[in-house]
């Protein structure tokens, strides 16, 4: 009996580890389609978001899956096995550090509080991903795979790419992990129509912004505000992912505002835009969700008070609670 329980428990853990490694590898292949430096540094690295999500959902025991996925990705890209192993260590330590920082900050995977969104941005993305960027860029320079003068551009692309993976991918994966099977009978047709219209408008406006030679990237902001206010995280996170993906493709192809500039300038423009997009979507949706939850809590407390009052005074059960405000009499002249 104990042997069966041991196999069941550890078998489930092993399956999760292999699943994380597979998703990590698949996300890396998607990210490498838009590589900018030495075939392995990209402006958006989805595996960091996948790794942090796995740690938040399954705990730190899942770390071998992250290491295995990172090894499979880098073994064909690194100049030597020692360099690959160092990069794997950095790619594993970065998400683990982010996970520890978020847990110490009391992070909740529901992302329904402003403090959760702020923690994900500054602890999960910007701070935790420093480790992988420093180790990865440093070992490439020390091994001679990169010139010393390219350390800072490579570090900047690596760090911002890893951070964008957390900011853009993690909220979407946490949303999918918490999603339930939709009950279409309870969804109003106008709600579905609004969601489809939001997706179409976001895509069209973003394509217009990145295709124009003028700097029209700010036109995307109303779509993100619309998504956050009307659909909260369920709308804001996918819209931010859609916008960032289109912007990355435009930067790689040097379209519109990204045409005629060097790598560092395009990276600064792209990552500033992607960062503002993710910040707007995350923070605004968290504020709206927190406000809605507070309002529901106040209504629940009022209902409990009304029920308690009705038990003390049965005649007051029919009275409205909370009582309506009394109108002030008009002052005489």
TrEMBL record:
<feature type="transmembrane region" description="Helical">
    <location>
        <begin position="190"/>
        <end position="210"/>
    </location>
</feature>
<dbReference type="GO" id="GO:0005886">
    <property type="term" value="C:plasma membrane"/>
</dbReference>
<feature type="transmembrane region" description="Helical">
    <location>
        <begin position="155"/>
        <end position="178"/>
    </location>
</feature>
<feature type="domain" description="MASE1">
    <location>
        <begin position="22"/>
        <end position="292"/>
    </location>
</feature>
<feature type="region of interest" description="Disordered">
    <location>
        <begin position="313"/>
        <end position="333"/>
    </location>
</feature>
<feature type="transmembrane region" description="Helical">
    <location>
        <begin position="118"/>
        <end position="143"/>
    </location>
</feature>
<dbReference type="Pfam" id="PF05231">
    <property type="entry name" value="MASE1"/>
</dbReference>
<keyword id="KW-1133">Transmembrane helix</keyword>
<feature type="transmembrane region" description="Helical">
    <location>
        <begin position="75"/>
        <end position="97"/>
    </location>
</feature>
<protein>
    <recommendedName>
        <fullName>MASE1 domain-containing protein</fullName>
    </recommendedName>
</protein>
<feature type="transmembrane region" description="Helical">
    <location>
        <begin position="270"/>
        <end position="289"/>
    </location>
</feature>
<keyword id="KW-1003">Cell membrane</keyword>
<keyword id="KW-0812">Transmembrane</keyword>
<feature type="transmembrane region" description="Helical">
    <location>
        <begin position="12"/>
        <end position="32"/>
    </location>
</feature>
<keyword id="KW-0472">Membrane</keyword>
<dbReference type="InterPro" id="IPR007895">
    <property type="entry name" value="MASE1"/>
</dbReference>
């Amino acid at each position: 009996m104990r042997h069966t329980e041991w196999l069941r428990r550890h078998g489930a853990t092993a399956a999760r580890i292999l699943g994380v490694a597979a998703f990590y590898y698949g996300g890396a292949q998607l990210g490498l389609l838009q590589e900018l430096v030495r075939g392995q540094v990209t402006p958006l690295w989805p595996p960091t978001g996948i790794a942090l999500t796995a740690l938040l959902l399954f705990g730190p025991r899942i770390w071998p899956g992250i290491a295995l996925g990172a090894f499979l990705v880098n073994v064909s890209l690194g100049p030597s096995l020692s360099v690959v192993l160092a990069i794997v260590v950095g790619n594993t330590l970065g998400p683990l550090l982010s996970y520890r920082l978020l847990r110490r900050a009391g992070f909740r995977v529901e992302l329904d509080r402003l403090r959760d969104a702020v923690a994900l941005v500054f602890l999960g993305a910007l701070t935790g991903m420093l480790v992988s960027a420093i180790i990865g860029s440093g070992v490439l320079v020390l091994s001679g795979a990169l010139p010393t003068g390219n350390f800072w551009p490579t570090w900047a692309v690596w760090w911002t790419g890893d951070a964008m993976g957390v900011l853009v991918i993690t909220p979407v994966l946490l949303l999918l992990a918490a999603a339930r099977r939709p009950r279409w009978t309870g969804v109003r047709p106008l709600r579905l129509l609004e969601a489809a219209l939001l997706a179409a408008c976001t895509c069209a406006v973003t394509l217009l912004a990145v295709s124009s030679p003028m700097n029209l990237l700010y036109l995307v902001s109303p779509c993100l505000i619309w998504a956050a206010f009307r659909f909260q995280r369920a709308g804001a996170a996918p819209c931010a992912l859609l916008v960032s993906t289109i912007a990355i493709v435009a930067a790689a192809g040097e379209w519109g505002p990204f045409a005629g500039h060097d790598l560092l300038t395009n990276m600064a423009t792209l990552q500033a835009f992607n960062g503002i997009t993710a910040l707007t979507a995350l923070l605004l949706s968290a504020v709206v969700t927190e406000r809605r939850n507070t309002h529901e809590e106040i209504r629940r407390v009022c209902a409990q008070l009304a029920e308690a009052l009705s038990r003390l005074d049965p005649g007051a059960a029919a009275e409205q609670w909370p009582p309506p405000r009394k109108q002030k009499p008009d002052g005489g002249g």
